[in-house]
């Protein structure tokens, strides 16, 4: 595990509620949204090769793997990479060969894109899992779709890693794409199309022109696998944002539908779980279990209408119902895991607990100063913010936490009521802490000893208590669809992972095998004497896999 030996630094999971990380990620998100239109590299990609790619498979058959949201902590990312690199997996008694094609479906790095982050969180783990092409068989191909985290540097690092023309490989996988989007001809009249539609309601003209040229090769019997960065079919329903699906629908009806081809399968990551919606015409699959923290499934609607009937688009495809067929984890397990927020929040987000402790200490000092009428003491004046100011800051902070400015969707009364209630709960905790503080002899100690005791003793205890108030708030708010992401991001659950293994048979049938990993490996053994194409690190614990859903067949 020495970085000098591995060539990269295994990173721990991202502490998603760390204050500095929240601030930097929010700023990068805002900058990407504000300046993305001016620095959009999709317009520049028109100068890059626009070839339609081909993966003929072997004897008219092809095995294809799909993984998304993978560039987080080493243990979870490498556990999935190790399984994908194995020559064969036994899933419920079926022997499933390694994919001849690997598709990374978005967010190959967290929290923001950069060359070092890609090296440590994506390229390094996957190179360690399969350092060289497999001996005695064709080299598998890797394609990648950019997610929102890949976009936070304007796609610079993404294109350098996945679209390079010199040394076009990532470990034992070779890379072929020249742009952030691609069209790949597969056996039996199947096609894989990957759309890059980040940060905008419209798909850029160079991208549309590229796919329009590719679509001229479609026959009326062509069947499409469409990979997109986010499950807009779900977000349109859950976030009540009908326009979320407009870009995908425009692409389907303007580029694919005129050819007579059918979109039989839509794939996406972004939400870190497995979920499948089934309709009469296609399957809509979210599979974002490649390494990032678990996102819940119990809040998913049992039925969605796609496209949303209330879209403002002047033209849209015919709306059809889709039923939630399967999820991983299942709803009871997802709901139960939410209760882990009480112990995971302070242990996995120490910086956040410290921030709450600091806020509680400032509140206590302000309240204690008024209660004891010690405003003339120099030390207290220097380190005690006026009570009204800190109360306003606490309430505003709780309100923004309930609905950050960079979050999608509209602010509603749920956010105001729950956020305000959370702020009042923190203030009530501070009042209780003030009462307990005044019961001790510490307030009578001479300056600066009383302040030092407050910082050394009161702040850590208040941070722990305040983080439990936050945990209780998140659990309650999650029941009303507020701060669902924070409830699970704050826990950083790195177990419960998933990916897809797909098989195109010579007769044209596409079988999808969703694979579940209930528990990742956390201990690894070096493997220095293994063949060149074998993993550098072997699991010291059993990596058990099972079906995340029953296999389903598309024709």
Automatic annotation (TrEMBL):
Q: Which residues cross the membrane?
A: 16-39, 350-371, 383-403, 415-437, 449-476
Key word Membrane present: yes
Which keywords does this chain's UniProt record carry?
Membrane, Transmembrane, Transmembrane helix
Instruction: List, alphabetically, the InterPro entries matched.
Output: Metallo-depent_PP-like
Gene3D superfamilies found in the cross-reference section: 3.60.21.10
Keyword DNA repair assigned to the entry: answer is no
Name of protein: Metallophosphoesterase
Organism this protein belongs to: Asanoa iriomotensis
